[in-house]
Amino acid sequence: MPDAASVTQRLTIARLGSGGDGVADTPQGPVFIAGTLPGETVLADITGRRGEGIAAALAGVETPSPDRATPPCPHFLVECGACALQHMAMPAYHAWKRGRLVEAMQRAGMAVEVAPLVAAPPGTRRRADLALKRVPHGVALGFHQRGSAAIADLSTCHVLDPRLVSLFRPLREVLKRLGALKREGSAVLNLLDSGPDLLLRTDGPLDSAQRAILAAFGIAHGIPRIAWALGDGVLETAAQSAPVKLVLAGVAVAPPPGAFLQAAPEGEAAIVAAVRAALPRKLAPRARIADLYAGIGTLSFPLGTTHRVAAYEGEAGAVAALDAAARKAGGRVEAIKRDLAYRPLLPAELDAFGAVVLDPPYSGAVEQVAQIARSKVRHAIYVSCNPVALARDAAVLGKAGFKAVSAVPVDQFPWSPHLESVVAFAR
């Protein structure tokens, strides 16, 4: 490896890595440099090891790529580590994103035509998981800096819905007044159909006077519910002025505080459309569909408009919200609490379904996919947020006789390396 104390090196970027960093190939191994693009000649300072490669900091761009663009956000790379590719022109960026699914299916050994990328526009993300820290001038609020525990104190964000960004300043002000935030904490903002929903975690207790402050803050800023927890403790409602709801295929769901949502409404709509389009044409209306890792019913309720759905979810708050909404709607969705990481559906259970839909976490669904492979299920629709895990799991299905029949890439994380994919398998 080059000496970390050596002079700045001139390198040529060969490609983008899976995290969005430019990669230069050297005799000592790949060098990862954030903020660079393929074809560029750059100056970089070696900073140390990074896995099996070498990390470097960009010192200058000598020969810029024609795909280089001016980042719209003043926080990009300088402070904030949430975005990786704001310096890349949109056409090239979209081609790279779609290429991630192409590569995943190739690694899985599956031949399938990958559809054009469906991209949610910037400024539409409806969830923010923010870090908080008390500092001498008040409270720092934002995302973590790249590769660091330090917080980028944000004034703006070009990814989030402006209605969430508009809460940054007043949230800082109210947090200054809360003794419950002694040193650090977190804030999750979800934008529901009922308005913003706030979950605070602090490192100190919240007394009645502070609850009153939060109640007034919620009313003043149109936040119907504010939940709170001490550290990683049990959540409780600190203040609530009105019910909360998120409408899924006409069904009103009351998500638990901090609930997982698809990142953008446009992204959610694209995923739902791709899943419904991937259902086998000959699937009878009376056929049952298994929706695995169902969350609050993002896919369950749309699928329930045409078929009976058994929705399996392990997180207690999510399955309770799904169950309550399903019972009230009187539809065809049944909510079932089950942790699929520890108790995946077995082949005998899976064989009762005409199709299986799964939307697992980032790590994928190793155990559940193994059971699907052993079952008699003929149709599986996999919604993935991680091309690497998708490639691994798809290869297992391929060995069991499944073929990929459709693949739709959905970008609802602008300028990040993350990609949603909907891939239909049949045998």
From TrEMBL:
One of its GO terms (molecular function) is 4 iron, 4 sulfur cluster binding. InterPro entries: MeTrfase_TrmA_CS, NA-bd_OB-fold, SAM-dependent_MTases_sf, TRAM_dom, U5_MeTrfase_fam. This is 23S rRNA (Uracil1939-C5)-methyltransferase. GO terms for biological process: rRNA base methylation. Coiled coil: none annotated. Belongs to the class I-like SAM-binding methyltransferase superfamily. RNA M5U methyltransferase family. The active site is at C385. It comes from Falsiroseomonas stagni DSM 19981. Residues 8-47 form the TRAM domain. The keyword Transferase applies. S-adenosyl-L-methionine binds at Q262, Y293, E313, D359. The keyword Metal-binding applies. It holds the Pfam family tRNA_U5-meth_tr.
